[in-house]
Amino acid sequence: MRLVRLVARGTLLHVKQMSRSQFEIATALFVPLVQATLAVYLFRAGSEPHRMLEAAVGAGMMAVWTSVLFGSGGAIQMQRWQGTLEMLMLSPRPPALLIFPITLATAVTGTYAMVATLLWGGLVYRIPLDIAHPLAFVVSVPAAILGLGMFGLLLASTFVLVPNANAVNNALEYPVWLVSGMLVPITVLPGWTGPIGAALPTTWAARAVRESVTGAGPVWPSLGICLAISAACLVAGAAVMSYVERRARANATLALA
Amino acid sequence: MRLLVVGGVIAYRALFNWARPSMFVGTLLIGPLFQLLFFAYLGRQLGVADDTFYIVGNAVLSATLACVFGGTIAVSNERRWGTLGHVLLSPRPRTLIFLGRAIPYAGNGLLIAVFTLTAGSLLLGLRIPASALPGLVLTLAVGSLSCACFGLTLGALGLRFRDVWLISNVSLALMMLLTGVNVPAAHLPEWMRVVGGGLPITHAAEAARRLVAGDSLAAAGPALVREVTVGVAYAVVAAVLLKIFEAESRRRASLDTL
Protein backbone atom coordinates (compact mmCIF):
# COMPACT_ATOMS: atom_id res chain seq x y z
CA MET A 1 0.00 0.00 0.00
CA ARG A 2 2.88 2.35 0.88
CA LEU A 3 4.42 1.51 -2.46
CA VAL A 4 1.23 2.47 -4.33
CA ARG A 5 1.03 5.67 -2.29
CA LEU A 6 4.63 6.56 -3.13
CA VAL A 7 4.08 6.01 -6.85
CA ALA A 8 0.72 7.83 -6.85
CA ARG A 9 2.03 10.85 -4.90
CA GLY A 10 5.20 10.96 -7.01
CA THR A 11 3.24 10.79 -10.25
CA LEU A 12 0.90 13.57 -9.12
CA LEU A 13 3.87 15.74 -8.12
CA HIS A 14 5.57 15.31 -11.48
CA VAL A 15 2.35 15.84 -13.45
CA LYS A 16 1.93 19.13 -11.56
CA GLN A 17 5.52 20.08 -12.25
CA MET A 18 5.17 19.36 -15.97
CA SER A 19 1.99 21.39 -16.05
CA ARG A 20 4.00 24.48 -15.04
CA SER A 21 6.11 24.44 -18.19
CA GLN A 22 4.71 26.73 -20.88
CA PHE A 23 6.63 24.80 -23.52
CA GLU A 24 5.27 21.43 -22.38
CA ILE A 25 1.72 22.74 -22.15
CA ALA A 26 1.65 24.45 -25.50
CA THR A 27 3.43 21.62 -27.31
CA ALA A 28 1.18 19.02 -25.71
CA LEU A 29 -1.89 21.13 -26.49
CA PHE A 30 -1.16 21.98 -30.07
CA VAL A 31 1.02 19.39 -31.80
CA PRO A 32 -1.36 16.42 -31.22
CA LEU A 33 -4.19 18.44 -32.75
CA VAL A 34 -2.11 19.14 -35.85
CA GLN A 35 -1.24 15.44 -36.09
CA ALA A 36 -4.89 14.47 -35.65
CA THR A 37 -5.91 16.96 -38.38
CA LEU A 38 -3.26 15.53 -40.69
CA ALA A 39 -4.55 12.02 -40.01
CA VAL A 40 -8.15 13.09 -40.63
CA TYR A 41 -7.33 14.66 -44.02
CA LEU A 42 -5.20 11.67 -45.02
CA PHE A 43 -7.93 9.17 -44.17
CA ARG A 44 -10.56 11.36 -45.86
CA ALA A 45 -8.44 11.64 -48.99
CA GLY A 46 -7.81 7.92 -49.05
CA SER A 47 -9.93 4.88 -49.61
CA GLU A 48 -10.87 4.37 -45.97
CA PRO A 49 -12.86 7.39 -44.74
CA HIS A 50 -14.90 5.07 -42.48
CA ARG A 51 -11.79 4.58 -40.32
CA MET A 52 -11.74 8.20 -39.12
CA LEU A 53 -12.27 7.30 -35.46
CA GLU A 54 -9.41 4.83 -35.73
CA ALA A 55 -7.29 7.64 -37.19
CA ALA A 56 -8.10 9.94 -34.27
CA VAL A 57 -7.31 7.22 -31.72
CA GLY A 58 -4.11 6.31 -33.57
CA ALA A 59 -3.00 9.95 -33.58
CA GLY A 60 -3.71 10.06 -29.83
CA MET A 61 -1.56 6.98 -29.20
CA MET A 62 1.21 8.53 -31.29
CA ALA A 63 1.16 11.58 -29.05
CA VAL A 64 1.28 9.40 -25.91
CA TRP A 65 4.39 7.66 -27.27
CA THR A 66 6.01 11.02 -28.10
CA SER A 67 5.35 12.22 -24.57
CA VAL A 68 6.81 9.04 -23.03
CA LEU A 69 9.81 8.97 -25.38
CA PHE A 70 10.92 12.56 -24.82
CA GLY A 71 9.79 12.80 -21.19
CA SER A 72 11.16 9.47 -19.98
CA GLY A 73 14.21 9.37 -22.22
CA GLY A 74 15.37 12.66 -20.76
CA ALA A 75 13.99 12.14 -17.23
CA ILE A 76 17.33 11.72 -15.47
CA GLN A 77 19.03 14.43 -17.49
CA MET A 78 16.19 16.79 -16.56
CA GLN A 79 16.66 16.01 -12.85
CA ARG A 80 20.37 16.75 -13.28
CA TRP A 81 19.66 20.11 -14.91
CA GLN A 82 17.21 20.98 -12.16
CA GLY A 83 19.75 20.00 -9.50
CA THR A 84 17.31 17.51 -7.92
CA LEU A 85 18.96 14.22 -8.90
CA GLU A 86 21.08 14.03 -5.73
CA MET A 87 17.99 14.65 -3.56
CA LEU A 88 16.17 11.80 -5.28
CA MET A 89 19.11 9.42 -4.88
CA LEU A 90 19.52 10.37 -1.21
CA SER A 91 16.01 9.13 -0.52
CA PRO A 92 15.89 5.78 1.35
CA ARG A 93 14.00 4.09 -1.50
CA PRO A 94 15.20 2.12 -4.53
CA PRO A 95 16.03 4.58 -7.33
CA ALA A 96 13.62 2.89 -9.74
CA LEU A 97 10.71 3.69 -7.42
CA LEU A 98 11.65 7.37 -7.52
CA ILE A 99 12.11 7.59 -11.29
CA PHE A 100 9.07 5.46 -12.20
CA PRO A 101 6.61 8.20 -11.10
CA ILE A 102 8.37 10.57 -13.52
CA THR A 103 8.01 8.21 -16.47
CA LEU A 104 4.43 7.43 -15.47
CA ALA A 105 3.73 11.18 -15.30
CA THR A 106 4.94 11.62 -18.88
CA ALA A 107 2.48 8.93 -19.98
CA VAL A 108 -0.32 10.50 -17.95
CA THR A 109 0.25 13.92 -19.52
CA GLY A 110 0.14 12.14 -22.88
CA THR A 111 -3.42 11.06 -22.04
CA TYR A 112 -4.49 14.61 -22.73
CA ALA A 113 -3.51 14.05 -26.36
CA MET A 114 -5.83 11.07 -26.62
CA VAL A 115 -8.76 12.99 -25.15
CA ALA A 116 -7.96 16.09 -27.20
CA THR A 117 -7.72 14.25 -30.51
CA LEU A 118 -11.03 12.50 -29.91
CA LEU A 119 -12.75 15.75 -28.94
CA TRP A 120 -11.12 17.59 -31.85
CA GLY A 121 -12.29 14.90 -34.27
CA GLY A 122 -15.80 14.92 -32.80
CA LEU A 123 -16.31 18.67 -32.55
CA VAL A 124 -14.44 19.95 -35.62
CA TYR A 125 -14.68 17.05 -38.08
CA ARG A 126 -17.94 15.52 -36.83
CA ILE A 127 -16.40 12.09 -36.35
CA PRO A 128 -19.02 10.08 -34.46
CA LEU A 129 -17.59 8.60 -31.27
CA ASP A 130 -19.06 5.17 -31.98
CA ILE A 131 -16.82 3.13 -29.73
CA ALA A 132 -17.60 -0.58 -30.10
CA HIS A 133 -16.72 -1.54 -26.51
CA PRO A 134 -16.89 1.60 -24.31
CA LEU A 135 -16.04 -0.29 -21.11
CA ALA A 136 -13.02 -1.95 -22.70
CA PHE A 137 -11.96 1.45 -24.07
CA VAL A 138 -12.21 3.10 -20.65
CA VAL A 139 -10.08 0.31 -19.17
CA SER A 140 -7.63 -0.12 -22.03
CA VAL A 141 -6.57 3.54 -22.32
CA PRO A 142 -5.39 3.93 -18.68
CA ALA A 143 -3.88 0.42 -18.78
CA ALA A 144 -1.99 1.30 -21.97
CA ILE A 145 -0.81 4.53 -20.32
CA LEU A 146 0.40 2.54 -17.29
CA GLY A 147 2.17 0.08 -19.60
CA LEU A 148 3.93 2.83 -21.51
CA GLY A 149 4.90 4.47 -18.21
CA MET A 150 6.58 1.18 -17.16
CA PHE A 151 8.32 0.96 -20.54
CA GLY A 152 9.43 4.56 -19.93
CA LEU A 153 11.48 3.42 -16.92
CA LEU A 154 13.55 1.16 -19.18
CA LEU A 155 14.06 4.10 -21.56
CA ALA A 156 15.03 6.42 -18.69
CA SER A 157 17.54 3.97 -17.23
CA THR A 158 19.16 2.88 -20.51
CA PHE A 159 19.25 6.31 -22.16
CA VAL A 160 21.28 7.66 -19.27
CA LEU A 161 24.05 5.29 -20.35
CA VAL A 162 23.95 6.59 -23.91
CA PRO A 163 25.94 9.72 -24.75
CA ASN A 164 23.67 12.19 -26.57
CA ALA A 165 20.46 10.43 -25.62
CA ASN A 166 18.59 13.30 -27.30
CA ALA A 167 19.77 11.98 -30.65
CA VAL A 168 18.31 8.55 -29.84
CA ASN A 169 15.04 10.18 -28.72
CA ASN A 170 14.76 12.14 -31.93
CA ALA A 171 15.49 9.09 -34.06
CA LEU A 172 13.00 6.76 -32.32
CA GLU A 173 9.73 8.66 -32.64
CA TYR A 174 8.72 7.65 -36.19
CA PRO A 175 10.15 4.10 -36.17
CA VAL A 176 8.05 3.16 -33.15
CA TRP A 177 4.95 4.83 -34.63
CA LEU A 178 5.58 2.77 -37.74
CA VAL A 179 6.36 -0.72 -36.37
CA SER A 180 3.72 -0.45 -33.62
CA GLY A 181 0.94 -0.03 -36.17
CA MET A 182 -0.40 3.11 -34.51
CA LEU A 183 -1.67 4.51 -37.81
CA VAL A 184 -0.14 2.26 -40.47
CA PRO A 185 -1.34 -1.37 -40.22
CA ILE A 186 1.55 -3.73 -39.46
CA THR A 187 0.42 -5.98 -42.33
CA VAL A 188 1.60 -3.48 -44.96
CA LEU A 189 5.13 -3.31 -43.50
CA PRO A 190 8.00 -5.62 -44.52
CA GLY A 191 7.85 -8.98 -42.72
CA TRP A 192 11.07 -8.44 -40.75
CA THR A 193 9.48 -5.59 -38.80
CA GLY A 194 6.91 -7.99 -37.31
CA PRO A 195 9.08 -9.46 -34.51
CA ILE A 196 10.34 -5.98 -33.57
CA GLY A 197 6.79 -4.69 -33.30
CA ALA A 198 5.67 -7.77 -31.37
CA ALA A 199 8.36 -7.16 -28.72
CA LEU A 200 7.24 -3.58 -28.09
CA PRO A 201 4.50 -2.79 -25.56
CA THR A 202 3.48 0.16 -27.77
CA THR A 203 2.26 -2.32 -30.43
CA TRP A 204 -0.01 -4.17 -28.01
CA ALA A 205 -1.19 -0.97 -26.34
CA ALA A 206 -2.19 0.52 -29.70
CA ARG A 207 -3.80 -2.77 -30.71
CA ALA A 208 -5.83 -3.05 -27.49
CA VAL A 209 -7.12 0.52 -27.76
CA ARG A 210 -7.91 0.07 -31.48
CA GLU A 211 -9.74 -3.20 -30.82
CA SER A 212 -11.84 -1.56 -28.12
CA VAL A 213 -12.80 1.19 -30.60
CA THR A 214 -13.50 -0.98 -33.65
CA GLY A 215 -14.58 -4.22 -32.00
CA ALA A 216 -12.32 -5.99 -34.51
CA GLY A 217 -10.78 -8.35 -31.98
CA PRO A 218 -10.58 -9.38 -28.35
CA VAL A 219 -9.19 -6.46 -26.31
CA TRP A 220 -8.08 -8.30 -23.19
CA PRO A 221 -5.37 -10.59 -24.65
CA SER A 222 -3.70 -7.60 -26.34
CA LEU A 223 -3.91 -5.60 -23.13
CA GLY A 224 -2.55 -8.54 -21.14
CA ILE A 225 0.45 -8.92 -23.45
CA CYS A 226 1.04 -5.14 -23.31
CA LEU A 227 1.11 -5.19 -19.51
CA ALA A 228 3.25 -8.36 -19.36
CA ILE A 229 5.92 -6.87 -21.67
CA SER A 230 5.71 -3.58 -19.78
CA ALA A 231 6.18 -5.33 -16.44
CA ALA A 232 9.28 -7.07 -17.84
CA CYS A 233 10.53 -3.63 -18.97
CA LEU A 234 9.86 -2.29 -15.48
CA VAL A 235 11.94 -5.06 -13.87
CA ALA A 236 14.75 -4.64 -16.42
CA GLY A 237 14.60 -0.85 -16.01
CA ALA A 238 14.80 -1.17 -12.21
CA ALA A 239 17.85 -3.44 -12.48
CA VAL A 240 19.61 -1.08 -14.91
CA MET A 241 18.68 1.91 -12.74
CA SER A 242 20.26 0.30 -9.64
CA TYR A 243 23.40 -0.52 -11.62
CA VAL A 244 23.63 3.03 -13.01
CA GLU A 245 23.12 4.54 -9.57
CA ARG A 246 25.84 2.38 -7.97
CA ARG A 247 28.25 3.15 -10.79
CA ALA A 248 27.52 6.89 -10.62
CA ARG A 249 28.07 6.91 -6.83
CA ALA A 250 31.33 4.95 -7.15
CA ASN A 251 32.65 7.18 -9.92
CA ALA A 252 31.26 10.38 -8.37
CA THR A 253 29.50 11.24 -11.63
CA LEU A 254 25.92 11.44 -10.37
CA ALA A 255 25.49 15.16 -10.87
CA LEU A 256 27.59 15.49 -14.00
CA ALA A 257 25.49 16.70 -16.91
CA MET B 1 30.97 38.93 -48.70
CA ARG B 2 33.44 37.82 -45.99
CA LEU B 3 31.05 38.99 -43.30
CA LEU B 4 28.17 37.16 -44.94
CA VAL B 5 29.88 33.81 -45.63
CA VAL B 6 32.77 33.49 -43.15
CA GLY B 7 30.74 35.10 -40.36
CA GLY B 8 27.87 32.73 -41.10
CA VAL B 9 30.11 29.66 -40.99
CA ILE B 10 31.79 30.74 -37.72
CA ALA B 11 28.38 31.38 -36.14
CA TYR B 12 27.20 27.96 -37.36
CA ARG B 13 30.16 26.22 -35.75
CA ALA B 14 29.69 28.12 -32.53
CA LEU B 15 25.94 27.95 -32.14
CA PHE B 16 24.56 24.85 -33.84
CA ASN B 17 24.74 22.32 -31.05
CA TRP B 18 23.27 19.60 -33.27
CA ALA B 19 26.42 19.46 -35.42
CA ARG B 20 27.91 16.61 -33.35
CA PRO B 21 27.95 13.35 -35.37
CA SER B 22 25.55 11.42 -33.12
CA MET B 23 23.06 14.29 -32.96
CA PHE B 24 23.38 15.01 -36.68
CA VAL B 25 22.84 11.40 -37.73
CA GLY B 26 20.09 10.61 -35.20
CA THR B 27 18.11 13.80 -35.48
CA LEU B 28 18.74 15.12 -38.95
CA LEU B 29 19.27 11.96 -41.04
CA ILE B 30 17.53 8.99 -39.40
CA GLY B 31 14.50 10.93 -38.09
CA PRO B 32 13.48 12.43 -41.48
CA LEU B 33 14.13 9.12 -43.28
CA PHE B 34 11.71 7.29 -40.99
CA GLN B 35 9.24 10.14 -41.38
CA LEU B 36 9.38 9.54 -45.14
CA LEU B 37 8.86 5.78 -44.68
CA PHE B 38 5.98 6.35 -42.25
CA PHE B 39 4.05 8.55 -44.67
CA ALA B 40 4.93 6.42 -47.70
CA TYR B 41 3.51 3.30 -46.06
CA LEU B 42 0.48 5.21 -44.77
CA GLY B 43 -0.10 6.67 -48.24
CA ARG B 44 0.17 3.20 -49.79
CA GLN B 45 -2.30 1.76 -47.30
CA LEU B 46 -4.83 4.55 -47.77
CA GLY B 47 -4.31 4.86 -51.51
CA VAL B 48 -3.89 8.64 -51.20
CA ALA B 49 -0.89 8.92 -53.51
CA ASP B 50 1.96 6.83 -54.82
CA ASP B 51 5.42 6.42 -53.26
CA THR B 52 6.93 9.09 -55.52
CA PHE B 53 4.61 11.71 -54.00
CA TYR B 54 5.80 10.90 -50.48
CA ILE B 55 9.47 10.32 -51.26
CA VAL B 56 9.90 13.63 -53.07
CA GLY B 57 7.65 15.60 -50.72
CA ASN B 58 9.27 14.33 -47.54
CA ALA B 59 12.77 14.75 -48.98
CA VAL B 60 12.02 18.44 -49.53
CA LEU B 61 10.40 18.63 -46.09
CA SER B 62 13.41 16.99 -44.41
CA ALA B 63 15.39 20.21 -44.83
CA THR B 64 12.98 22.05 -42.53
CA LEU B 65 14.29 20.48 -39.34
CA ALA B 66 17.83 21.80 -39.83
CA CYS B 67 16.74 25.07 -41.42
CA VAL B 68 13.88 26.11 -39.12
CA PHE B 69 15.63 25.09 -35.90
CA GLY B 70 18.97 26.29 -37.29
CA GLY B 71 17.59 29.73 -38.09
CA THR B 72 16.09 29.91 -34.62
CA ILE B 73 19.32 28.74 -33.00
CA ALA B 74 21.33 31.29 -35.04
CA VAL B 75 19.69 34.15 -33.16
CA SER B 76 18.30 32.82 -29.92
CA ASN B 77 21.37 30.84 -28.81
CA GLU B 78 23.36 34.10 -28.85
CA ARG B 79 20.97 35.35 -26.22
CA ARG B 80 20.99 32.08 -24.30
CA TRP B 81 24.76 32.00 -24.07
CA GLY B 82 25.12 35.69 -23.29
CA THR B 83 26.90 36.67 -26.51
CA LEU B 84 24.09 38.64 -28.15
CA GLY B 85 25.32 41.91 -26.67
CA HIS B 86 28.76 41.37 -28.22
CA VAL B 87 27.25 40.73 -31.65
CA LEU B 88 25.09 43.84 -31.44
CA LEU B 89 28.08 45.94 -30.32
CA SER B 90 29.73 45.18 -33.67
CA PRO B 91 29.82 48.19 -36.01
CA ARG B 92 28.89 45.99 -39.02
CA PRO B 93 25.41 45.86 -40.58
CA ARG B 94 23.10 43.62 -38.56
CA THR B 95 21.16 42.51 -41.62
CA LEU B 96 24.29 41.06 -43.22
CA ILE B 97 25.46 39.47 -39.97
CA PHE B 98 22.19 37.65 -39.42
CA LEU B 99 21.24 36.87 -43.02
CA GLY B 100 24.68 35.30 -43.49
CA ARG B 101 23.77 32.87 -40.79
CA ALA B 102 21.02 31.37 -42.92
CA ILE B 103 23.53 30.18 -45.54
CA PRO B 104 25.21 27.31 -43.60
CA TYR B 105 21.81 26.08 -42.44
CA ALA B 106 20.55 26.11 -46.02
CA GLY B 107 23.62 24.05 -47.01
CA ASN B 108 22.87 21.71 -44.13
CA GLY B 109 19.25 21.41 -45.25
CA LEU B 110 20.33 20.65 -48.82
CA LEU B 111 22.63 17.87 -47.61
CA ILE B 112 19.84 16.33 -45.53
CA ALA B 113 17.30 16.61 -48.36
CA VAL B 114 19.70 14.94 -50.84
CA PHE B 115 20.42 12.16 -48.33
CA THR B 116 16.71 11.61 -47.60
CA LEU B 117 15.81 11.59 -51.30
CA THR B 118 18.62 9.16 -52.14
CA ALA B 119 17.97 6.80 -49.22
CA GLY B 120 14.18 6.95 -49.71
CA SER B 121 14.51 6.24 -53.44
CA LEU B 122 16.84 3.29 -52.84
CA LEU B 123 14.64 1.80 -50.11
CA LEU B 124 11.33 2.20 -51.94
CA GLY B 125 12.58 1.74 -55.48
CA LEU B 126 12.04 5.17 -57.02
CA ARG B 127 13.93 5.82 -60.27
CA ILE B 128 14.69 9.47 -60.89
CA PRO B 129 15.65 10.40 -64.46
CA ALA B 130 19.28 11.55 -64.60
CA SER B 131 18.23 14.62 -66.61
CA ALA B 132 16.14 15.76 -63.63
CA LEU B 133 19.02 15.72 -61.15
CA PRO B 134 20.53 19.22 -61.73
CA GLY B 135 17.08 20.84 -61.55
CA LEU B 136 16.24 18.76 -58.49
CA VAL B 137 19.39 19.86 -56.65
CA LEU B 138 18.60 23.48 -57.54
CA THR B 139 15.04 23.05 -56.26
CA LEU B 140 16.20 21.47 -52.99
CA ALA B 141 18.73 24.29 -52.54
CA VAL B 142 16.09 26.97 -53.12
CA GLY B 143 13.68 25.22 -50.75
CA SER B 144 16.38 24.95 -48.07
CA LEU B 145 17.37 28.60 -48.39
CA SER B 146 13.77 29.72 -48.26
CA CYS B 147 13.25 27.58 -45.19
CA ALA B 148 16.38 28.95 -43.50
CA CYS B 149 15.05 32.50 -44.04
CA PHE B 150 11.79 31.39 -42.42
CA GLY B 151 13.82 29.96 -39.52
CA LEU B 152 15.63 33.28 -39.20
CA THR B 153 12.27 35.04 -38.96
CA LEU B 154 11.32 32.74 -36.10
CA GLY B 155 14.76 33.32 -34.56
CA ALA B 156 14.10 37.07 -34.69
CA LEU B 157 11.01 36.46 -32.57
CA GLY B 158 13.44 35.01 -30.03
CA LEU B 159 14.57 38.59 -29.34
CA ARG B 160 11.06 39.41 -28.22
CA PHE B 161 9.60 36.18 -26.85
CA ARG B 162 11.25 34.05 -24.21
CA ASP B 163 10.29 30.59 -25.45
CA VAL B 164 10.98 30.64 -29.16
CA TRP B 165 11.37 26.81 -29.28
CA LEU B 166 7.67 26.55 -28.80
CA ILE B 167 7.09 28.62 -31.95
CA SER B 168 9.60 26.52 -33.91
CA ASN B 169 8.04 23.22 -32.84
CA VAL B 170 4.52 24.36 -33.67
CA SER B 171 5.69 25.80 -37.01
CA LEU B 172 7.29 22.49 -38.00
CA ALA B 173 4.11 20.59 -37.16
CA LEU B 174 2.04 23.05 -39.17
CA MET B 175 4.38 22.81 -42.16
CA MET B 176 3.84 19.06 -42.25
CA LEU B 177 0.10 19.67 -42.56
CA LEU B 178 -0.15 22.83 -44.67
CA THR B 179 2.58 22.49 -47.30
CA GLY B 180 0.81 19.69 -49.17
CA VAL B 181 3.80 17.43 -48.67
CA ASN B 182 1.84 14.62 -47.07
CA VAL B 183 -1.77 15.44 -47.93
CA PRO B 184 -2.29 16.40 -51.59
CA ALA B 185 -3.25 20.10 -51.69
CA ALA B 186 -6.47 19.26 -53.57
CA HIS B 187 -7.74 17.47 -50.46
CA LEU B 188 -7.06 20.39 -48.12
CA PRO B 189 -9.57 23.21 -47.51
CA GLU B 190 -9.06 26.45 -49.43
CA TRP B 191 -7.81 28.40 -46.40
CA MET B 192 -5.17 25.79 -45.64
CA ARG B 193 -3.95 25.94 -49.25
CA VAL B 194 -3.71 29.74 -49.02
CA VAL B 195 -1.73 29.58 -45.76
CA GLY B 196 0.44 26.79 -47.18
CA GLY B 197 1.20 28.93 -50.24
CA GLY B 198 2.83 31.45 -47.93
CA LEU B 199 5.06 28.85 -46.27
CA PRO B 200 8.45 27.71 -47.51
CA ILE B 201 8.72 24.20 -49.05
CA THR B 202 5.21 24.21 -50.56
CA HIS B 203 6.29 25.44 -53.99
CA ALA B 204 9.67 23.67 -53.87
CA ALA B 205 7.86 20.37 -53.31
CA GLU B 206 5.60 21.11 -56.29
CA ALA B 207 8.62 21.93 -58.49
CA ALA B 208 10.50 18.82 -57.34
CA ARG B 209 7.50 16.59 -58.11
CA ARG B 210 7.26 18.07 -61.61
CA LEU B 211 10.95 17.44 -62.25
CA VAL B 212 10.78 13.83 -61.02
CA ALA B 213 7.71 13.30 -63.22
CA GLY B 214 9.88 14.17 -66.23
CA ASP B 215 8.93 17.82 -66.73
CA SER B 216 11.63 20.28 -67.78
CA LEU B 217 13.13 22.92 -65.50
CA ALA B 218 11.15 25.51 -67.48
CA ALA B 219 7.92 23.73 -66.55
CA ALA B 220 8.92 23.67 -62.89
CA GLY B 221 10.12 27.28 -63.14
CA PRO B 222 6.95 29.11 -62.00
CA ALA B 223 6.79 27.05 -58.79
CA LEU B 224 10.49 27.64 -58.22
CA VAL B 225 10.03 31.40 -58.68
CA ARG B 226 7.20 31.36 -56.16
CA GLU B 227 9.49 29.54 -53.68
CA VAL B 228 12.21 32.16 -54.22
CA THR B 229 9.63 34.90 -53.63
CA VAL B 230 8.50 33.30 -50.37
CA GLY B 231 12.14 32.97 -49.25
CA VAL B 232 12.98 36.60 -50.08
CA ALA B 233 9.83 37.74 -48.28
CA TYR B 234 10.88 35.90 -45.12
CA ALA B 235 14.43 37.31 -45.39
CA VAL B 236 12.98 40.83 -45.50
CA VAL B 237 10.61 40.12 -42.61
CA ALA B 238 13.52 38.65 -40.58
CA ALA B 239 15.68 41.74 -41.24
CA VAL B 240 12.85 44.12 -40.27
CA LEU B 241 11.95 42.16 -37.14
CA LEU B 242 15.59 41.97 -36.05
CA LYS B 243 15.88 45.76 -36.36
CA ILE B 244 12.63 46.41 -34.50
CA PHE B 245 13.29 43.94 -31.69
CA GLU B 246 16.91 45.05 -31.29
CA ALA B 247 15.80 48.67 -30.89
CA GLU B 248 13.08 47.61 -28.46
CA SER B 249 15.49 45.43 -26.45
CA ARG B 250 17.92 48.33 -26.12
CA ARG B 251 15.16 50.71 -25.09
CA ARG B 252 13.76 48.33 -22.48
CA ALA B 253 17.19 47.06 -21.40
CA SER B 254 15.96 43.52 -21.98
CA LEU B 255 18.59 42.38 -24.49
CA ASP B 256 19.97 39.50 -22.43
CA THR B 257 16.90 38.79 -20.34
CA LEU B 258 15.97 35.14 -20.41
From TrEMBL, chain A:
State if Transmembrane is listed as a keyword. Answer: yes
Q: Which residues cross the membrane?
A: 21-43, 55-76, 97-123, 135-162, 174-200, 220-244
Record's keyword terms, sorted = Membrane, Transmembrane, Transmembrane helix
* Membrane topology qualifier: Multi-pass membrane protein
Q: Where in the cell is it found?
A: Membrane
In terms of one coarse class, where is the protein primarily found? membrane
**Residue span(s) of domain ABC-2 type transporter transmembrane:** 15-211
Asked if the Swiss-Prot or TrEMBL record annotates the protein with the keyword Membrane, the reply is yes
Q: Where is the signal peptide?
A: none
What's the protein name? ABC transporter
UniProtKB/TrEMBL annotation, chain B:
- Family that this chain belongs to: Belongs to the ABC-2 integral membrane protein family.
Q: Does the keyword Disulfide bond apply?
A: no
Ordered alphabetically, the record's keywords are:
Antibiotic resistance, Cell membrane, Membrane, Transmembrane, Transmembrane helix, Transport
| Name by which UniProt lists this protein | Transport permease protein
Pfam families this protein is in? ABC2_membrane (PF01061)
Q: What is the annotated localization of this protein? A: Cell membrane; Membrane
Where does it mainly reside?
A: membrane
Where is the signal peptide, in residue numbers? none
Q: Is the Electron transport keyword given for this protein?
A: no
Which part of the chain is the ABC transmembrane type-2 domain?
A: 18-253
The record ties this protein, via InterPro entries, to: ABC2_TM, ABC2_TM_bact-type, ABC_2_transport, Nod_factor_ABC_transporter
Transmembrane parts of this sequence? 21-41, 53-75, 96-124, 136-157, 164-183, 228-245
**What topology in the membrane does the UniProt record assign?**
Multi-pass membrane protein
